[in-house]
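New to this. Please check this protein:
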Amino acid sequence: MIAKFINFIYLYVLTPHKWVILIKSGKLNKWKELFQPVNLSRADPFIIIHEDKIYIFFEEFDIKERRGYLCVGEFNESNNTLDQVKIILSKEYHLSYPNIFQYKGEYYLIPETEENNSIDLYKFISFPHSLIFIRRIASDLKAVDTEFFLIDNQEFLFTSLSGEGYSFDDNLHYLILRDGLLGNSMYGIGDFKLFSSSNKNSRNAGKYFYVNEELYRYSQDSTLRYGANLNLVKMNIHDLDNKHEKIIKKIFPQLGYICRHTMNNNGGYTVTDAKKINANFGDVVRTIFILLNFIAKKIKSNLYKFTN
């Protein structure tokens, strides 16, 4: 009981839900934290270079409201800031992991919509701000950090599932899109096949990419805690049922941060997220107030349901 209480204080008071975005490039030569408002948390950055502009897409989380939505900002390298930040997708449920990719010359988005029990596809009709809903790819399942990728002209989704004996952090499943990304097939949890089953190396942490015709990805290591550190992994794509991957390098949080769970590269730039350690008394007090207010709302909501 005492150990659980100490862990609770450590995770929710001294290290609250305060994620930030870091970036580095050949010019910066080291990680730089991007400024963000004090009441917001930002994570899951994806970087796209389009028409000579550097866009960073990310989850923004309102700490008070406890709900995430998706945003984009233009990276200003001179000032090390995200400019013209705008919301591109917001729902009544939590959104995160804005996986953006090009498919047949168009930009698409598969966000994490686990709270909606679905995997959904969106298309940009005006990049980078305007989206339309295209289709529901999968339903009646809990899936997080989904990646779309083509291997030998065959289209796949790779994602982590909850259910069927798995939790989000200990598996990676793949789905073969029988009639393609834009087809009409609706998939369920039974259509996914197991690729990896370890909380050390399974859950996605960013886009897949080729180096010298070898396929790599970043994965999450959650053996100590969620987002403890990352791995750079080389995948075996020639025999998906072999479930073989090789960890090339472990990537730990920088000094002053305790977690990271996403990393992406593009055009010589690398973006990642990191969870900050609370460094001042004001932040601790603010976190305690927000946490107590959130708990009070939950208790009030449950009492209302019980009495009605």
